[in-house]
UniProtKB/TrEMBL annotation:
The lineage of its organism: Eukaryota, Viridiplantae, Streptophyta, Embryophyta, Tracheophyta. The keyword Membrane applies. It comes from Camellia sinensis var. sinensis (China tea). This is Uncharacterized protein. Keywords: Membrane, Transmembrane, Transmembrane helix. It comes from the Eukaryota. The chain crosses the membrane at residues 83-102, 122-143, 163-188, 214-233, 245-264.
Length: 272
C-alpha cells in the first residue's frame, strides 16, 4: 500500500464516536391498511371502543372478496330476530285469517259481501289486497336475515332495477302526495255530503275497525310497517346522498315520511 493511499484512508474515515452513536437503525413505521373485504359485512372495532357497522355499495374491488365469519353475538341476535319474526307470522295468520275471535269473519267463513268489499278496497291501494300486506312482508323480513351474506354479494344490476332506482324520487313524491291527500280527504272530504265533522268521522272509523276484519287487519299492517320501515331504511342508509344521511336517519322512524325522504334523497350517481 502506498503512503498516499494510507494517508487518505486515515484522514477520511468517520470518527469512531460517530459510528457508535449516530448509526441508529431506521425507525419502522407502522402502516395500517383496511382490506376492502371487511367493508360489506364486518364490524370494525377500534381501540377507542367504537363499533362501526354497515354495508357498502357493490364495487369491482369487492367482487372476489369473501366475508369474514361474524361474531357469535351478531349470529345469536340474528337468530333471535328471525325466530321472533316467524312467531309473529304464525300469530298474524292464526289471529287474522283462521281464528274467529278478531272482529269480522275469518277466511273459512268469509261472506260474498266481504269479498266484494275486499276487491273494492283494493282500488284504494293500487289493486293490492289490504289483507295480504304483512302476510308476505313478515316472511320477507325473516328470510332476508337468513340471506344476509348473499344480499351483500356484488351482482350486476338489471335494467329493471336501474329503471326503478332512477324513478325512486318520482315514486316517493307521488306516494307522499297521495298519502297527504288521503289524510285530508278523510278529515275534510265532501263537507256537503252529511258525513259529519272530524269527531263523527273518528267515531265511524273506530266502529268500522271493530266490526270489519279487513279494517282491523289493516291496523295490524300499519303497526308492523311502523317497525319495519326504520329497520329497512337503516340497513340501506348508505345509499342516501351523503349530505342527506342525517335527516334520512332521523326521519326513518316517522311512518311514510321517512320512506318518502329516503326515496327522494337516494344517490343516483351510483348504482344501488
Amino acid at each position: 500500500m502506498s503512503t498516499a493511499t494510507a494517508s487518505f484512508l486515515v484522514h477520511n474515515r468517520p470518527p469512531l464516536a460517530t459510528l457508535h452513536f449516530n448509526s441508529k437503525p431506521p425507525r419502522r413505521r407502522r402502516v395500517v391498511a383496511f382490506s376492502p373485504r371487511t367493508w360489506p359485512f364486518e364490524r370494525i372495532v377500534l381501540r377507542t371502543g367504537l363499533v362501526c357497522g354497515g354495508a357498502r355499495r357493490n364495487s369491482p374491488t369487492t367482487a372476489s372478496a369473501q366475508p369474514l365469519p361474524e361474531g357469535d353475538g351478531d349470529g345469536n341476535l340474528r337468530r333471535v330476530l328471525q325466530f321472533s319474526l316467524w312467531v309473529a307470522e304464525g300469530i298474524y295468520i292464526l289471529w287474522l285469517f283462521l281464528l274467529p275471535y278478531a272482529p269480522g269473519d275469518p277466511v273459512w267463513a268469509i261472506s260474498s259481501d266481504t269479498i266484494n268489499s275486499l276487491v273494492g278496497l283494493s282500488l284504494n291501494f293500487f289493486f293490492i289486497l289490504p289483507l295480504m300486506n304483512s302476510a308476505f312482508l313478515i316472511p320477507y323480513m325473516a328470510i332476508r336475515l337468513d340471506s344476509a351474506d348473499a344480499q351483500n354479494t356484488p351482482t350486476k344490476s338489471s335494467q329493471l332495477a336501474s329503471v326503478m332506482t332512477n324513478g325512486a324520487p318520482v315514486v316517493g313524491l307521488i306516494g307522499g302526495a297521495i298519502c297527504l291527500i288521503s289524510t285530508l280527504w278523510a278529515l275534510f272530504g265532501r263537507p256537503d255530503g252529511n258525513f259529519g265533522g272530524i269527531a263523527d268521522r273518528w267515531d265511524f272509523l273506530v266502529s268500522y275497525i271493530g266490526s270489519e276484519r279487513l279494517a282491523y287487519a289493516f291496523i295490524w299492517d300499519i303497526c308492523l310497517y311502523t317497525i319495519f320501515q326504520p329497520w329497512l331504511i337503516g340497513d340501506n342508509i348508505q345509499n342516501v346522498q351523503k349530505s342527506k344521511v342525517n335527516i334520512a336517519n332521523y326521519l326513518r322512524f316517522v311512518p311514510v315520511v321517512g320512506l318518502v325522504v329516503y326515496l327522494v334523497c337516494l344517490n343516483l350517481d351510483e348504482e344501488v
